[in-house]
């Protein structure tokens, strides 16, 4: 398989964690978002969405959108599992995944922040305030959820898709200097999972285009 990725993309970071966790080999193909390579004719011919990550399968089929890729990996390579068997627990995990992938991340990706600067004239302070607002709203709810569960991971002792999505979002929050003091449980989970091999190998600083 080939993973089209950018080292600091939190969505691509999620997929790298899952591939590592499941022990699946892949070729890393860097796509420089800051230089606009995702909008090049060659890349758009492969992935009309013009986003990363994209996972090209051995037969040439290409999957896009990180959560869809994560679900495909779980369905086709169920062991080791990133979702439990219990339907209620699976729903709880997917709820946390969606709070990150649907409510936090889309409002703070590169294209949105560039639009604020270039089309709406936002200065650096205003862009940072925008970023902080949506991260903190999401983290406030996630912190309460993690406090109710209490394990080293988001839901118990083993990583799930919730951890796969939370760790990259925490990395980005720290990179943008979001105050994290009030998120003790989020920090606890992110630090624990970050020490695990699958997560450490997926860290942005460990990627060839870092």
Low-confidence stretches: none
The first-to-last residue Cα distance is 21 Å
What is the CATH architecture term of the largest domain? Up-down Bundle
Tally of strands: 4
Helix content: 40-55%
Number of contiguous helices: 9
Strand content: 5-15%
* Structural domains: how many: 2
Task: Give the CATH topology of the largest domain.
Answer: Glutathione S-transferase Yfyf (Class Pi), Chain A, domain 2
Note down, in words, how this protein is organized.
Helix 1 (10-21) crosses helix 7 and helix 4 (87-104) packs antiparallel against helix 6 (124-149). The protein has a four-stranded mixed β-sheet, covered by helices on one side. The chain is globular and about 45 Å long. It folds into two domains: 2-80, 3-Layer(aba) Sandwich (Glutaredoxin), CATH 3.40.30; 87-198, Glutathione S-transferase Yfyf (Class Pi), Chain A, domain 2. The chain has 210 residues and is of the alpha+beta class. The protein starts with a strand and ends in an 8-residue tail after the last helix. It has helices spanning 10-21, 41-46, 66-76, 87-104, 110-118, 124-149, 161-175, 184-194, 197-202; strands at 2-5, 27-30, 54-56, 62-64.
Lay out the secondary structure:
Blueprint: E1 2-5, H1 10-21, E2 27-30, H2 41-46, E3 54-56, E4 62-64, H3 66-76, H4 87-104, H5 110-118, H6 124-149, H7 161-175, H8 184-194, H9 197-202
Helix pairs in contact: 1-3, 1-7, 4-6, 4-7, 6-8, 7-8
Gist of the model:
54% of the residues lie in helices and 7% in strands.
List its salient traits.
210 residues; Glutaredoxin; four-stranded mixed β-sheet; alpha+beta; 2 domains; single chain; Glutathione S-transferase Yfyf (Class Pi), Chain A, domain 2
């Amino acid at each position: 398989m080939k993973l089209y990725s950018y080292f600091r993309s939190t969505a691509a970071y999620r997929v790298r964690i899952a591939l590592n966790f499941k022990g699946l080999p892949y070729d890393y193909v860097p796509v420089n978002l800051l230089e606009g390579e995702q909008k090049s004719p060659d890349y758009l011919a492969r992935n009309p969405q013009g986003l990363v990550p994209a996972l090209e399968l051995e037969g040439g089929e290409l999957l896009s959108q990180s959560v869809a890729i994560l679900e495909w990996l779980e369905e086709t390579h169920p062991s080791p599992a990133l979702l439990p068997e219990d339907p209620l627990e699976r729903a709880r995990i997917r709820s946390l995944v969606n709070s990150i992938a649907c409510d936090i991340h889309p409002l703070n990706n590169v294209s949105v922040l560039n639009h604020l600067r270039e089309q709406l004239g936002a200065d650096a302070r205003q862009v940072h305030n925008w970023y902080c607002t949506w991260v903190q709203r999401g983290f406030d709810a996630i912190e309460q959820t993690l406090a109710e569960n209490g394990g080293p991971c988001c839901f118990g002792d083993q990583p799930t898709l919730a951890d796969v999505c939370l760790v990259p979002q925490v990395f980005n929050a720290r990179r943008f200097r979001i105050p994290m003091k009030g998120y003790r449980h989020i920090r606890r989970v992110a630090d624990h999972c970050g020490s695990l091999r699958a997560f450490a190998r997926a860290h942005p600083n460990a990627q060839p285009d870092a």
